[in-house]
Each structure stands twice: as C-alpha cells, then as structure tokens.
Amino acid sequence: MHIRRFVFHACLVLACGLPSVAGWAREGVEVGKESAFAKLVPASEVEQSAFQQYSQMLKQAADKNALGPSDHPQVLRLRQIAKELIPHSYEWNPRARDWKWEVNLIGSNQVNAFCMPGGKIAFYTGILKQLELTDDEVAMVMGHEIAHALREHARERMGKSAATNGLATIGGTVASVFFGINPNVTDFVAKQGANLINLKFSRDDETEADLVGMELAARAGYDPRAGVTLWQKMSAANKGAPPQWLSTHPSGNSRIEEIQANLPKVLPLYQRAKDSR
Fold first, then answer.
1. E strands of 53-144, at which residues?
2. What is residue 271's three-state secondary structure?
3. 3-state class of 36 per DSSP?
C-alpha cells in the first residue's frame, strides 16, 4: 500500500512538470573533485601569505612608477572584465564571496598574469601589448588564473609538499587528514610564500584551469572560442624562448584540442549571457 502511494506521488510530481533527476545535471565543464591534499594546509594561512606578497609586489611597482593608476584605460578595462567574471566564481568556491578581490596592472615587458590565493589578480602590460589581446582573450587569461585560485591549486601543491616533507611524524598523509594538521605546516606555508607568484602547476591543474576559466568567461558573456586564438598567439609570440606565462603553462595542439572539445558545453552559456546583455 505504501509502495503504491509512493509511486502515485512520484508520477504526480513528474506529471506536474517538475524537473527530473536528469534535469538537475550541471551545465558547463566537468572537472574532478578538489584534491584532499589542499586540506593539509589552512586556507587562511595561504591567503595571508598571498596578501603579504601581493602587497609587497604592489609597493615595489609603485616605487618604480610601474603600478597602473586607477584611471588608466587598461586598468579600467581589466577591472570591468573581472567585475563580470567574479560573480560566476562563487559556485566553484564559496569562500570566494569573502575574498578581498583586487585587480592591478604592472608596467613590465613580461608576458604574464596571475591570480594569487584570495583573489589577488595582476596583469603585466607585456601580455596585453605584445599579444594585442581582445577583451574575449583577456577574459580567457583572467578566467584561467582565477580558476587556479578557486580550485586552490597553490594550496594543493603546498599540501603535497607538506605531506612529503613535514607530516611523517604523525603517520603520513591519511593520518593527517583524519587527526589534524602538524603544527610545522604553518612554518612550511611561511617558507613557501615566495613561490606563490610564479608557482608552476601540474599539467592536470593547467587543463582544469583552462576548462573552468573558459566556463567563467562564457557565463560572463565572453566568447570561449577566444581560448583557441589566445593559445595560437601565445605559441607564436616567441618561437625561440617562450614568454614567461607560456613557459609556466604547458602548451601545444593538445591544449587547443581540449578547449575545442569542451566548447559545446560552454557555448550555450555564452550565447545566453550575450543575449541577456
């Protein structure tokens, strides 16, 4: 009797037009779960280290008259694009709502950009000028870097290093996850802080950042197909020695192919955002 009643109610729900389980599938790209290694290092410690290093970098740039003023056209451009991307980041990392986001421009010929933990974004003038980036391409670069912060790749790499170098005393990585963090980890974070700006990520991290960043850009109304032209420009920028941003990110046809393979998942999001403007 109870089973029949349950079946009746289930049919009634479907008949009323409520979404089925299949309708609850997430739109957009698919990436793996966050690494358990990130949990070995307190997020607050990593973000504080990032804040200190970012502040120091801005001060050094200002001392050299290399910090873009707030009314600079390129600064205004970058901050507008960030303003449109950031609201779409919260789904990927709820803490992003509380980050003190910053976007700054550094006068340098380096072809580089990054987003440190806690939402600290910087672009170098070199990447904008030398590659003559369109707004769509800037959004792809920015989305990629924001994705590293959202997926906490820096924290993950610190956790892996901490598990290797500093957690043996409590029985290894598994024990640390279930029974707490080694006090030495805080010291480890402080020592590793210098690596946050130019931190090199694994190929898997880079692929994940490409896909998540592409979705962020698409949801904000920027054409995700710009990811293809961006990497074509990056590859052609310097055939002898690759520019710094490219040297820390694996490139090649396989990367473009990965982006192209995932375009069908994000183009509808882009079209919807574009139509709503």
1. 102-106, 113-116, 120-124
2. helix
3. helix
pLDDT tens-digit readout, 2-13? 444 433 343 333
Q: Which residues have a catalytic role annotated?
A: 145
Amino acid at 251: S
Q: Measured between alpha carbons, how far is 84 from 105 in angstroms, rounded to an integer?
A: 18
Phi, psi torsion values for 102, nearest 5 degrees: -140, 145
Unique residue bearing structure tokens 């739109």:
27
Q: Give the Cα separation of 193 and 113 in Å (integer).
A: 18
**What amino acid occupies position 148?**
H
Say yes or no to pLDDT of 93 above 80: yes
The token duo for 264 is 């069908």
pTM: 0.78
* DSSP string covering 160-218: HHHHHHT-GGGTSHHHHHHH---THHHHHHHHHGGGSTTPPPPHHHHHHHHHHHHHHHH
Round the CA-based radius of gyration of the chain to a whole number and report it. Answer: 21
Token pair belonging to 143: 């989305």
Count the Cβ atoms, other than its own, within 10 Å of residue 121.
Answer: 24
DSSP, collapsed to helix, strand or coil, labels residue 102 as strand
Q: Which tokens is 72 given?
A: 């600079």
